[in-house]
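Researcher: Before we compare anything, I want clean individual predictions. No alignment, no superposition, just each chain on its own. First chain goes here; please echo the sequence and then give the structure tokens.
Model: Echoing the first chain and its structure:
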Amino acid sequence: MAAFVVTLDGVIAGWGDGVASLLGYRADEVIGRDVSMFLPGEHPSDFPRILAAAARGQRIETFETLVGRDGMRLQVALRAVPTRNGGGQVTGARATLRDVTPERAEEAQAWLMALLESSHDGIYALDPRGVIRNWSPGAERLYGYAAHEAVGLPYTSLFPDNRHDEAAMALDCALAGEPVSLFDTEARRKDGGLVPSFLNLWPVWDRRGNVAGVSAIARDVTEETLVQEALADSQARLRDTEAMARVGHWVWDVGTGAVQWSEGLHRIFGLDPVRFAGTLEAHLDAIHPADRKRVRAEMHEAVSASAPFTSRYRILRPDGTTSWLDSRADVVAPGPPPGTVAGLRGICQEVEIFHRGSEEAAG
């Protein structure tokens, strides 16, 4: 692979064997020098835009003309991704190159067509007026238009009327040179049907450094949407079931000490989620002082013995009421090595409620 690393100020910081073979420069000839050393001076370079995108944490794909050590000019497809230091700060970009000079253009075109043919996403190209100029088989499947029907249509025709302003604004941003992602939109099919979709718009630059058009990738997310809806429905049913049965669920992660409560358990303990610290100590603090030490020991014993936890204990709510709970939990094993325990996953059921002062009376 032909790859090199350049800092945000354009200094070459890394040089791979592949790019050395492609451009003819050894690492000791380029490390520490400005990337402009192998850029032709008469045409604007994409490198300022590439490094600006890297500084924002974005990856970018473009075409660039490079000059080899022997003076030969190469047309390359360039893909740059941000590089980061140990603290996560962007320090530069790692650029990978693929030679697409004219003698290899036919091969590159064949690869591109194979990619378009095999992709399930809808891929199409727009000119600066927002008119469709290219149309992939995936776009035909998603939108229902054949290529000869789609080419020449306005881009906004692929959206329902109430999404036109959103779509037009996204296109304007892409034409201004900024990639745009619409993560929650709808594709309007030829038959008028609406399909939940994600859309990415990416500016296409010409050799003079101007935006010549926009590439678009649309993805049908119907299945993902149905899964999310089913999950939301399942969670709603769980909340209803917990409320009716006066039960709640909890998980204790031994490694981090974190404890998670379900909505039903917050309801039983009478604690707002915002007020619950999410730790083992916070979990135990909600237990009646007379039972707290015993329950702590039982939980740790279950983890040590890798055995189920069962207990009956009282809780003391902030409003002064007291309840008895039956609690049981199974150990959660993270996998190998055998015998290790990641924590406990349990359920509590409220079995008896006492009001303020009534517990002593019932005693």
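Researcher: Okay. Second chain, same rules.
Model: Second chain and its structure:
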Amino acid sequence: MLALVNIFKREPSPALILAYAVAQGVFLGGISSFFEAMYPGIVTQAVLATFCVVAVTLGLFVSGKVRASARATKVFLVVMIGYLLFSLVNVGLMAFGVNNDPWGLRTSVEIAGIPLGVILGVLAVLLGAYSLVLDFDFIQKGVQNRVPARYQWTGAFGIMVTIIWLYLEILRLIAILRR
């Protein structure tokens, strides 16, 4: 809920952004300890993988090898909406007992012997990396256009949301692979 309020607020609210960070810290701590109990070492793997994706994306962005473009952003939005729709259908199937697998369609469906969750996990990591590119681009354009300093919070919030999502997707991908 805090994320939605922050996303749709006209002016950034440092207090709400910090509250979101605290709430997500508690959530990530809980889910990480749950996964760590099931798969020892998974949290370290997911954290390292997340740092690597963020570092590579930032390095490529700073070097100019990767940029946000209008066409890539349109494709990104279409794929993100498709991924969101799949996720909602998957949760619905699990909630209504149509699929009892803990990962839903992510592990009960295979394509060429590869669980759908692995394919979707790689796709989600790529989407997360491009989302970081969009976040970096937002900040870069803000600096170039001398946007008021209070919007630094908006940039920080965007990066935080993306990194949390990326970590969760990597955690899920590794859990599916270790299953």
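Researcher: What stands out in the second chain?
Model: The mean pLDDT is 92. Additionally, Strands lie at 110-111, 114-115.
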